[in-house]
Structure formats: structure tokens, C-alpha cells
């Protein structure tokens, strides 16, 4: 059997470039095991729908819910979705759908409809929901610009500062607003930490956006890794992977998924987003002792992320099963 080409489509903007995920393998051209990841391949052997939800059936329902007159007017820029063209002739049994969004309860009906649509086109449909066709953890992707070999072989970089947090000022959901409320508590506590991210409120005192996540995270010993969602046993995001790959010890607020995926001691569990949580962070970051104690566990977790949880490794194993 030769190596299989895996194409990709997504509803995320800016992720459909030819070399998507190529930085997550030590081999040229997106090769990992028995696959080559080539997002734009015209005739791939397999196709990944990566957080894709632009199904024509869902757009049709949206169209039906418009006012009577607006149903006859297509909004400017909106085009009919040609699913056969998007699927590039790949048979259903070789099309894989992976959902990556937090399973907020208020989005349950929408997510169920998306899963139902995905099953009409895909032989394997998975996501971090108990009601997903195949409930499962989200395979790891990370957002450092470093090559795989650099991340795999490097020792800990020089550390200079105690703690950082990358977040945003988005406040669309109750979970977002809860996170911002905790940020305000941290600022009022005068905790020594640096804040980075987009759309942060003026009172937060953040440094703003950044281009290279490694440059921001690597000089810190601790990182606040706070998920937008922490309620089920499946959801864990790149917040944890990025922190560990930068040799930070994550102070993590999220679901129990992290405990099942990573080695013991490789992250700290933030107990709550309240005064108790603030006190815990203050205690941990007051010294560098915990980081030094957990350094070996961080190193082990990095290898698990790079070689086992890696999305390319997941796809390679799945392609082997699907044939």
C-alpha cells in the first residue's frame, strides 16, 4: 500500500493553505506514517472536514427562516454551496469530520443538526460532545511557528518571568463573561502576571495581540490555561498543548479530559474561577519551586503531545483502520 493523500476543508478562515499542518511533522510535505497531509489536493484518497459546518442543508433552513420577501434575495456575497465539488470525488467511507468547538449547551440544537448533516456525507464523524456520533477528544494541533524537530529536540528555553495569560476580551457567552470576571479579580489582587490577547478591555492592562506565540510564551515559567468550556469529559484545546510545548507549567482550568490524556504532574489544576482560584495562583507563582519540581513531567507531556496526541498521528491511525 502506498501513502494516502489527505485533503481538507474547513469553515475556519485562513486554514486551507497547501501546507496546513506541515509544521506538525519532522518529514517534508506533511508526511506522517502512511499519510501525506495536502489540504488542497484535487483528488485526495481521504478528506478531512475540519470543523466544517457550511452544509447546504443548514443554509437552506436559514433561508427558510428569513422573512418572506428576503427569501427571494440572496445576501450580497452569499453563494450556493457545491458539496460534490468540495468533496472532490472522495467516497463517503473515506471522509472524516472532526468538530473542534466547545460544546456549549445553548449550541446543542445547532451542533446536533451539524452532526446529522455530517453523517450524510462522512463515514466517520467525531467531536467533543457526549451526543456526537463518535464522542472523542480533539486531536492536538498547536500554534507555535517552530518546526517539529525544534520542538521535539530542544531543551527548556531561558525563562525570565513568572506567569502569563493569553486570552481575549470576547464576551459573547456566559463562559466568556465568567472568564473576564476572573481576569478582573486577578487584576484587583495585584498578582504578578503578564496579559496578552486581542480585544482586551482597557482596564485589563494587557499588551495586546501578537504574531508568534512562542516568542510570547517561552520566557515564562507558568501559564494560565483557562478553557472557554470545562463541563464534560472530552473537551480540551490547544491552550494546554501550546503552554507545555513552550515549557510552561500550565495552571489549567478545564475538563477532566486533560487528566486522561497527559502524564500526572504535567499541569496544575486551577480549582475555581473565584477568590479561591486567585489565592491558588498567588501561592504557586510566588516561587519557581513547582516549575522545577514538575520539569520532568513537562518534558514527558511534550513528547505525548508531539507524537501521540498529534492530529497527524490520529489521522494516520484512522486511515489505517478505514483502509
Describe, in short, the structure shown.
The protein has 323 residues and is an alpha/beta fold.
Structure characteristics:
alpha/beta, Rossmann fold, 2 domains, 12 helices, seven-stranded mixed sheet, 323 residues, single chain, globular
The structural domain count equals 2
Largest sheet: 7 strands, mixed
CATH C-level category of the largest domain: Alpha Beta
The CATH architecture designation of the largest domain is 3-Layer(aba) Sandwich
Structural class: alpha/beta
Number of strands: 12
- Uncertain spans: 66-77
Q: Give the overall silhouette.
A: globular
Helix share bin: 25-40%
Distance between the terminal alpha carbons, to the nearest Å?
10 Å
* Number of helices in the DSSP assignment: 12
SSE series: EEEEHHEHEEHEHEHEHEHEHHHH
Give the secondary structure arrangement, pairings included.
Elements: E1 4-10, E2 31-32, E3 35-37, E4 46-50, H1 56-64, H2 83-87, E5 95-98, H3 108-121, E6 124-127, E7 134-135, H4 148-153, E8 161-166, H5 174-189, E9 194-196, H6 213-217, E10 220-226, H7 238-245, E11 249-253, H8 257-261, E12 268-269, H9 275-285, H10 289-293, H11 295-309, H12 311-322
Parallel strand pairs: 1-3, 1-4, 4-5, 5-6, 6-7, 8-9, 8-10, 10-11, 11-12
Antiparallel strand pairs: 2-3
Amino acid at each position: 500500500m502506498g501513502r494516502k493523500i489527505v485533503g481538507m476543508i474547513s469553515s475556519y478562515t485562513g486554514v486551507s493553505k497547501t501546507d496546513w499542518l506541515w509544521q506538525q511533522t519532522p518529514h517534508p510535505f506533511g508526511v506522517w506514517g502512511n499519510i501525506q497531509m495536502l489540504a488542497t489536493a484535487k483528488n485526495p484518497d481521504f478528506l478531512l472536514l475540519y470543523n466544517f459546518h457550511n452544509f447546504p442543508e443548514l443554509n437552506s433552513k436559514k433561508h427558510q427562516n428569513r422573512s418572506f420577501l428576503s427569501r427571494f434575495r440572496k445576501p450580497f456575497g452569499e453563494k450556493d454551496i457545491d458539496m460534490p465539488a468540495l468533496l472532490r470525488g472522495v467516497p463517503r467511507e473515506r471522509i472524516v469530520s472532526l468538530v473542534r468547538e466547545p460544546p456549549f449547551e445553548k449550541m446543542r440544537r445547532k451542533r446536533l443538526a451539524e452532526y446529522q448533516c455530517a453523517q450524510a456525507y462522512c463515514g466517520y464523524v467525531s467531536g467533543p460532545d457526549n451526543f456526537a456520533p463518535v464522542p472523542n477528544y480533539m486531536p492536538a494541533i498547536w500554534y507555535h511557528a517552530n518546526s517539529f524537530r525544534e520542538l521535539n529536540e530542544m531543551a527548556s528555553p531561558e525563562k525570565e518571568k513568572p506567569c502569563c495569560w493569553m486570552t481575549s476580551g470576547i464576551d459573547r457567552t456566559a463562559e466568556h463573561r465568567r472568564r473576564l470576571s476572573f481576569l478582573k479579580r486577578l487584576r484587583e489582587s495585584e498578582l504578578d502576571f503578564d496579559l496578552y490577547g486581542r480585544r482586551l478591555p482597557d482596564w485589563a492592562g494587557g499588551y495586546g495581540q501578537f504574531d508568534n506565540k512562542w516568542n510570547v510564551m517561552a520566557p515564562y515559567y507558568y501559564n494560565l490555561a483557562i478553557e472557554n468550556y470545562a463541563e464534560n469529559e472530552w473537551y480540551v484545546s490547544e491552550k494546554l498543548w501550546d503552554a507545555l510545548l513552550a515549557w510552561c507549567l500550565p495552571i489549567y482550568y478545564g475538563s477532566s479530559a486533560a487528566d486522561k490524556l497527559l502524564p500526572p504532574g504535567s499541569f496544575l489544576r486551577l480549582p475555581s474561577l473565584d477568590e479561591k482560584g486567585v489565592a491558588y495562583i498567588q501561592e504557586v507563582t510566588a516561587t519557581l519551586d513547582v516549575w522545577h519540581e514538575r520539569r520532568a513531567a513537562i518534558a514527558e507531556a511534550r513528547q505525548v503531545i508531539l507524537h501521540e496526541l498529534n492530529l497527524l498521528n490520529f489521522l494516520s491511525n484512522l486511515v489505517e483502520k478505514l483502509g
